[in-house]
Write a structure and sequence with these properties.
Blueprint: E1 3-9, H1 18-33, E2 41-47, E3 59-68, H2 74-91, E4 99-108
Parallel strand pairs: 1-2, 3-4
Antiparallel strand pairs: 1-3
Helix pairs in contact: 1-2
Protein backbone atom coordinates (compact mmCIF):
# COMPACT_ATOMS: atom_id res chain seq x y z
CA UNK A 1 0.00 0.00 0.00
CA UNK A 2 -0.42 2.38 -1.67
CA UNK A 3 -1.16 0.75 -5.01
CA UNK A 4 -0.76 3.30 -7.81
CA UNK A 5 -1.63 2.70 -11.45
CA UNK A 6 -0.98 5.18 -14.25
CA UNK A 7 -2.73 4.52 -17.56
CA UNK A 8 -1.44 6.69 -20.39
CA UNK A 9 -1.76 7.03 -24.15
CA UNK A 10 1.17 5.69 -26.16
CA UNK A 11 1.63 9.06 -27.88
CA UNK A 12 2.82 10.50 -24.56
CA UNK A 13 5.52 7.90 -23.85
CA UNK A 14 8.56 9.82 -25.14
CA UNK A 15 7.67 12.99 -23.21
CA UNK A 16 6.63 11.35 -19.94
CA UNK A 17 9.41 11.03 -17.36
CA UNK A 18 7.84 8.09 -15.57
CA UNK A 19 10.67 7.32 -13.11
CA UNK A 20 10.79 10.93 -11.87
CA UNK A 21 7.00 11.10 -11.70
CA UNK A 22 6.83 7.91 -9.61
CA UNK A 23 9.60 9.10 -7.29
CA UNK A 24 7.92 12.45 -6.68
CA UNK A 25 4.46 10.91 -6.33
CA UNK A 26 5.76 8.40 -3.78
CA UNK A 27 7.25 11.28 -1.79
CA UNK A 28 3.91 13.10 -1.92
CA UNK A 29 1.98 10.03 -0.78
CA UNK A 30 4.31 9.67 2.20
CA UNK A 31 3.99 13.37 3.09
CA UNK A 32 0.25 13.75 2.49
CA UNK A 33 -1.22 10.34 3.35
CA UNK A 34 1.34 9.02 5.86
CA UNK A 35 2.31 6.01 3.75
CA UNK A 36 5.57 4.17 4.28
CA UNK A 37 8.11 4.90 1.51
CA UNK A 38 8.96 1.23 0.96
CA UNK A 39 5.26 0.39 0.55
CA UNK A 40 4.68 2.69 -2.44
CA UNK A 41 4.28 0.78 -5.72
CA UNK A 42 3.46 2.22 -9.13
CA UNK A 43 2.61 0.45 -12.35
CA UNK A 44 2.56 2.28 -15.67
CA UNK A 45 0.26 0.92 -18.35
CA UNK A 46 0.71 2.22 -21.87
CA UNK A 47 -2.39 2.18 -24.05
CA UNK A 48 -2.05 2.00 -27.81
CA UNK A 49 -5.68 2.96 -28.42
CA UNK A 50 -7.39 6.02 -26.97
CA UNK A 51 -10.69 7.58 -27.92
CA UNK A 52 -12.24 10.72 -26.47
CA UNK A 53 -15.84 11.39 -27.36
CA UNK A 54 -16.41 10.58 -31.01
CA UNK A 55 -12.74 11.29 -31.91
CA UNK A 56 -9.68 9.10 -32.03
CA UNK A 57 -7.28 11.71 -33.40
CA UNK A 58 -5.75 14.63 -31.55
CA UNK A 59 -6.35 13.39 -28.01
CA UNK A 60 -4.30 11.64 -25.33
CA UNK A 61 -5.30 10.41 -21.88
CA UNK A 62 -3.58 9.96 -18.53
CA UNK A 63 -5.50 8.53 -15.59
CA UNK A 64 -3.85 8.07 -12.19
CA UNK A 65 -5.47 5.73 -9.67
CA UNK A 66 -4.16 5.70 -6.10
CA UNK A 67 -5.46 2.90 -3.89
CA UNK A 68 -4.96 3.47 -0.16
CA UNK A 69 -6.00 1.64 2.96
CA UNK A 70 -9.21 3.15 4.32
CA UNK A 71 -9.15 5.94 6.86
CA UNK A 72 -7.93 9.01 4.97
CA UNK A 73 -10.14 12.09 5.09
CA UNK A 74 -11.80 13.51 1.99
CA UNK A 75 -9.48 16.51 2.30
CA UNK A 76 -6.41 14.26 2.29
CA UNK A 77 -7.68 12.32 -0.71
CA UNK A 78 -8.49 15.50 -2.64
CA UNK A 79 -5.10 17.02 -1.83
CA UNK A 80 -3.37 13.86 -3.01
CA UNK A 81 -5.33 13.80 -6.29
CA UNK A 82 -4.51 17.47 -6.96
CA UNK A 83 -0.85 16.87 -6.15
CA UNK A 84 -0.74 13.90 -8.53
CA UNK A 85 -2.06 16.09 -11.35
CA UNK A 86 0.41 18.86 -10.54
CA UNK A 87 3.28 16.37 -10.62
CA UNK A 88 2.02 15.05 -13.95
CA UNK A 89 2.17 18.58 -15.38
CA UNK A 90 5.80 18.81 -14.24
CA UNK A 91 6.85 15.45 -15.68
CA UNK A 92 4.88 15.39 -18.95
CA UNK A 93 6.30 17.41 -21.81
CA UNK A 94 3.94 19.31 -24.14
CA UNK A 95 2.30 16.76 -26.40
CA UNK A 96 2.76 18.33 -29.81
CA UNK A 97 -0.76 19.58 -30.43
CA UNK A 98 -2.55 16.76 -28.63
CA UNK A 99 -5.29 17.62 -26.18
CA UNK A 100 -4.23 15.78 -23.02
CA UNK A 101 -7.08 14.69 -20.76
CA UNK A 102 -5.58 14.07 -17.30
CA UNK A 103 -7.41 12.78 -14.25
CA UNK A 104 -6.64 11.34 -10.83
CA UNK A 105 -8.67 9.29 -8.38
CA UNK A 106 -7.86 8.32 -4.81
CA UNK A 107 -9.88 5.35 -3.62
CA UNK A 108 -9.96 3.04 -0.63
CA UNK A 109 -8.61 -0.44 -1.15
CA UNK A 110 -11.14 -3.17 -0.45
CA UNK A 111 -10.99 -4.57 3.09
CA UNK A 112 -9.93 -7.90 1.57
CA UNK A 113 -6.67 -6.32 0.32
CA UNK A 114 -3.57 -8.27 1.30
CA UNK A 115 0.04 -7.81 0.25
CA UNK A 116 2.84 -10.34 0.05
CA UNK A 117 6.46 -9.50 -0.65
CA UNK A 118 9.14 -12.06 -1.42
CA UNK A 119 12.75 -11.96 -2.48
Amino acid sequence: MPQITVDYSAELADGFDRPAFARDLHTAVVDIAAARPAACTTQFRRSEDTAVGPDTEGHAVVHITLGLLAGRTEETRARLAETALELLRRHLAPAGGLAVHASAEVRDLDPSYRKHESR
